[in-house]
């Protein structure tokens, strides 16, 4: 048997979990993400929210592009515009954060973009091939 022991949580972490109704820190992050003008004390939390919103947008648009037989450069260009535009509106208008705290607008706009683009392409190709390929 190994001599590893469970690491005990500090008492304030247990009290915070109870105060959140038993929900951990994950519930509070997504709660802040869906509330307008939230205070983001941890920059990494906000960047994680941006990253995962991009992945969700990529899956949704990939499914739509695959069902609607969209092809070529037009599909890619429209995805890029929607992905960048929606996230820009999210962090500038909905959350109203100071972009300079995160390295400027460009840093927030490109956060997680390439992984969402790759995910979009995979989902788009799978759905298009499954539905429209003879």
Task: Explain how this protein is built.
This protein has helices spanning 11-19, 25-34, 43-67, 72-94, 105-110, 113-132. The protein contains six helices and no strands. It is an all-alpha fold and 134 residues long. Mean pLDDT is 81; it is low at 1-9 and 13-26. The relative contact order is 0.14. α3 (43-67) runs antiparallel to α4 (72-94). Helices cover 69% and strands 0% of the residues.
Structural class: mainly alpha
Strand content: under 5%
Succession of helices and strands: HHHHHH
| Average pLDDT figure | 81
Radius of gyration: 19 Å
Tally of extended strands?
Answer: 0
Low-confidence parts, pLDDT < 50 over ≥5 residues?
Answer: 1-9, 13-26
Q: Please summarize the sheet with the most strands.
A: none
Number of helical stretches of at least 4 residues: 6
Question: Distance between termini?
Answer: 58 Å
Note the overall shape.
elongated
Percentage of residues assigned to helices: 55-70%
